[in-house]
């Protein structure tokens, strides 16, 4: 239990909600986090993405005041996590990736236990617990043994516990891991509501597609380093990852004409000929360049009926990006 008391500490709104600078953490000779820096504005929902072992949990545990960095500083709501952990804990809700329930304790008793530990008393405590149970839809399960619930219900209880002190900032470590599709949707809806309430949320996952639609931006971590911070769209459009765009084009008449044209055009490679046209790789992500390609096709006499950019799967974009980083050819905006 890391939250200590209430009411919430004051938040310095002149600074971003979360600021991480040159964070480093080693375990023996293993450098789990190697100079991570990022900042997150108030009310932003940010996905923290990386393969197993990339350093997500280590980073998040330091943010949640559960571990110390070897180097670097972290400020939550303007407060240094090492110097003012109590203030930070009052502003912050932490949802760990694995969480324990107790035998012989109902959902209501479990939440009551944590609410007492947070210092809530009397009617106010009952009100907080009821609000949290209503929000997480646990009211019908109030008398259920907390260790006899489905994974989805358990995750909602864990979320409820982390919301008891109504924190402005939430850090969630792999909250959707192991959930079935229905429970995932329910969890996403709850996160969406919290985001609409203006909470700042950092949420980790190794499943990118899970985060893309939910987050304002994505932070990619690989081998303890941040390799990219941007919005999901810039990844699927390929900008940071590949600096190229896949375009599907259809024409009236023989597609060979289009292929012939593409073979001699600058910045363009033919990926494949299709029934009515071709898939092309354009070595640019600039909207102006793409518009220019379309214009040239038309002025060169091709009767274009369809021209559209392909959305790449986030997973593919991420894997491409990591490959390019390894080869040293990455053209994106590594911080
Ligand atoms: N307490 C510890 N002692 C030793 N090594 C650790 C400790 N905690 C983490 N590590 C190592 O640090 C590296 C980063 O682990 P971390 O848990 O932060 O990764 P992660 O990105 O959260 O991965 P996952 O998705 O598997 O949870 C891993 O190699 C891990 O084995």
From TrEMBL:
PROSITE patterns hit by this protein: ABC_TRANSPORTER_2 (PS50893)
Domain ABC transporter: 18-248
Gene Ontology molecular function terms on file: ATP binding; ATP hydrolysis activity
A Pfam family it matches: ABC_tran
SMART domains reported for this sequence: AAA (SM00382)
Keyword annotations from UniProtKB, A to Z: ATP-binding, Nucleotide-binding, Transport
Similarity-based family: Belongs to the ABC transporter superfamily.
Protein name: ABC-2 type transport system ATP-binding protein
């Amino acid at each position: 239990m890391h939250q200590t008391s209430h009411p919430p500490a004051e938040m310095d709104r002149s600074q971003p909600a979360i600021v991480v600078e040159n964070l480093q953490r080693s375990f023996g000779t293993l450098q789990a986090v190697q100079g991570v820096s990022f900042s997150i504005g108030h009310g932003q929902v940010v996905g923290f993405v990386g393969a197993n072992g990339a350093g997500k949990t280590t980073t998040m545990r330091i943010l949640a005041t559960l571990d110390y960095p070897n180097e670097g500083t972290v400020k939550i709501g303007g407060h240094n996590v090492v110097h003012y952990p109590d203030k930070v804990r009052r502003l912050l809700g932490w949802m760990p990736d694995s969480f324990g329930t107790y035998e012989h304790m109902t959902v209501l008793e479990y939440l009551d236990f944590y609410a007492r530990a947070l210092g809530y008393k009397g009617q106010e405590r009952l009100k907080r617990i009821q609000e949290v149970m209503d929000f997480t839809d646990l009211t019908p399960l109030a008398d259920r043994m907390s260790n006899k619930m489905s994974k989805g219900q358990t995750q909602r209880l864990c979320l409820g516990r982390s919301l008891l002190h109504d924190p402005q900032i939430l850090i969630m470590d792999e909250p959707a891991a192991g959930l079935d599709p229905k429970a995932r949707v329910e969890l996403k809806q709850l996160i969406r509501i919290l985001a609409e309430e203006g909470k700042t949320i950092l949420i980790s996952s190794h499943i990118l597609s899970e985060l893309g639609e939910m987050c304002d931006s994505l932070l990619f971590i690989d081998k303890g380093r941040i390799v990219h911070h941007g919005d999901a769209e810039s990844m699927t459009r390929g900008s940071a990852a590949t600096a190229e765009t896949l375009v599907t084009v259809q024409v009236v008449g023989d597609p060979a004409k289009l292929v012939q044209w593409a073979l001699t055009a600058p910045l363009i490679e033919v990926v494949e000929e299709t029934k009515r046209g071709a898939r092309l790789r354009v070595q640019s992500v600039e909207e102006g360049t793409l518009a220019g390609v379309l214009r040239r096709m038309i002025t060169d006499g091709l009767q274009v009926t369809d021209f559209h950019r392909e959305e790449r799967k986030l997973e593919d974009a991420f894997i491409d990006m990591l490959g390019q980083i390894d080869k040293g050819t990455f053209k994106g905006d590594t911080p």
